[in-house]
Each structure stands twice: as structure tokens, then as C-alpha cells.
Amino acid sequence: PQILIVGAPGAGKGTQSSNLAEEYGIEHVTTGDALRANKDVETEHGTPREYMEDGELVPDEVVNEIVQEALESADGYVLDGYPRNESQVEYLEGITELDVVLYLDVPEEELVNRLTGRRVDPETGENYHTEYDMPADEEVRDRLVQRDDDTEDTVKERLRVFEENTEPVIEHYEDHAGFVRIDGEQSPDEVWSEIKGAVDERV
Ligand code: AP5
Ligand code: ZN
């Protein structure tokens, strides 16, 4: 299947995309991870780092190219973190078709808590949370890091950028065939079972 997952920063896109990739044997295409892996690569618009550390969008030309290349080589995918504005929506429509659009709906106070408490294992990329999801293994616990953009000020700016640029994207997809709103405030397992049910019904 060709799946798009949309939602605010911290809605659980990365967490659920990993489940989807594993369950359906598809590629997890994520612009956030791709950009983090190439943070210091110079483009004609500067480096991704300059935008990401402030919570701003990286220029469309840079991101569009990443997505086009990744989708071309994927046999089934879950696309996470893109499109984030209407110009990216148009670009995406020119290169692929979507079977399912999953919207993870989570209220803003919950997003701030999830993001500022998130810790990442640099070796596996696995996400944890300081309040309710720490690894049992002490070695793993000791190597966890906070993402550069998960500080309180940058989180606020990311949420503002989401409201301004990405909420219209979600409105755009509401009328799209295969659109499903998922209550993303439930536990990760409950969210996953709702997602799996919705995808199985549509592919
Ligand atoms: P990106 O990496 O895409 O970040 P984001 O959209 O802000 O989303 P996150 O990765 O923070 O959250 P998520 O929804 O994946 O949630 P997660 O599963 O991790 O983008 C980063 C930056 O890159 C952007 O700001 C921009 O600069 C740039 N960029 C990326 N794409 C771009 C584009 N298309 N155009 C331009 N620029 C672009 O979960 C979050 C936390 O919550 C974790 O701790 C997790 O354990 C926990 N959690 C997950 N699910 C649940 C649950 N159900 N209940 C409780 N806790 C949960
Ligand atoms: Zn993510």
C-alpha cells in the first residue's frame, strides 16, 4: 500500500510509521529523519540545520527532491513528515497516488508534553519518554539524547509553523478518498490497532 500519515509534531507519526512499515513490508519514508541525517549538507539554501534548529520548514526544493527519490525506489511506502504545506501537496500529487491518508489527531497540551519529554536512542532510533516510557536496560538509558528541536521554545515554534502551514494540508486531504481520522490521544497500542483496522479495510 501507499500510505500517508499526517499530524502535528509529536502526534506519533514516527512511532506508528514503524509499525506500518513492519506490518506491511513497506518503506518508511520520513523527511525529518532524512534531513537529520544530512543536517550539515550545504545546499543553495544553506544547511537543513539552520532551519530545523529554529523549528522552521526546510525549503521545498530540498525536501521535494528527497521525497521524489525515496518514492521512486519504494514498492509500497508510508510517508511521514511530508507534505507540510500546500506547495508540497501539489508536488506530491504530481509524483504518486495515495491509497490511505491517516490523520493522527492529538490536542496541543499533550503534544508539548510528549515532545519536551521525548528521548531518542541514537543507536536504534527508538523513541522513549522521560515520564512514562524509559528503557529497562541501564546501558540504553544512559545513552539516550534529546533531539535538538525538542526544547520548549523550539517546540512552540514548530507547533506554530504546523498551524500556519500544515493544518491547511490536513483540510485538503479531508475530502480525499481513503482519509481516516484516528484518535491519537490513546495509548500507542490502541492507536496502532485503530490504524491497522483502517488500513486493512482500505487496501
Ligand atoms: P519531523 O522529524 O518530521 O518532526 P515533527 O513533524 O515535528 O514530528 P516528530 O517527529 O516530532 O513527532 P512524531 O509525530 O513523529 O511523533 P513520535 O512518534 O516521534 O521534522 C523535524 C523538522 O524537519 C521540521 O521542524 C522541519 O524543520 C524539517 N522538516 C521535516 N519535514 C519537512 C518538510 N516536509 N518540509 C520542510 N521541512 C521539513 O512521538 C513523539 C513522542 O511521543 C515520543 O516520545 C513517543 O514515544 C511518544 N508517543 C508516541 N505515541 C504516543 C502515544 N499514543 N501516547 C503517548 N506517547 C506517545
Ligand atoms: Zn517523527
From TrEMBL:
An example Gene Ontology biological process: AMP salvage
SUPFAM superfamilies named in the record: Microbial and mitochondrial ADK, insert 'zinc finger' domain, P-loop containing nucleoside triphosphate hydrolases
Assembly and binders: Monomer.
Function: Catalyzes the reversible transfer of the terminal phosphate group between ATP and AMP. Plays an important role in cellular energy homeostasis and in adenine nucleotide metabolism.
Reaction(s) the record says it catalyses: AMP + ATP = 2 ADP
Enzyme class: transferase
EC number(s) stated in the UniProt entry for this protein: 2.7.4.3
Principal place of residence: cytoplasm
GO terms assigned for molecular function: AMP kinase activity; ATP binding
Organism: Halalkalicoccus tibetensis
Origin superkingdom: Archaea
Keyword rRNA-binding: no
Protein name as annotated: Adenylate kinase
GO cellular component: cytoplasm
Keywords: ATP-binding, Cytoplasm, Kinase, Nucleotide biosynthesis, Nucleotide-binding, Transferase
List of residues binding AMP: T31, R36, E56, L57, V58, G81, Y82, P83, R84, Q88, R147, R158
Domain comment quoted from the record: Consists of three domains, a large central CORE domain and two small peripheral domains, NMPbind and LID, which undergo movements during catalysis. The LID domain closes over the site of phosphoryl transfer upon ATP binding. Assembling and dissambling the active center during each catalytic cycle provides an effective means to prevent ATP hydrolysis.
This protein's record includes keyword Protein biosynthesis: no
Entry-linked NCBIfam families: adk, PRK14530.1
Similarity comment: Belongs to the adenylate kinase family.
Pathway terms, separated by semicolons: Purine metabolism; AMP biosynthesis via salvage pathway; AMP from ADP: step 1/1
Subcellular location(s) of the protein: Cytoplasm
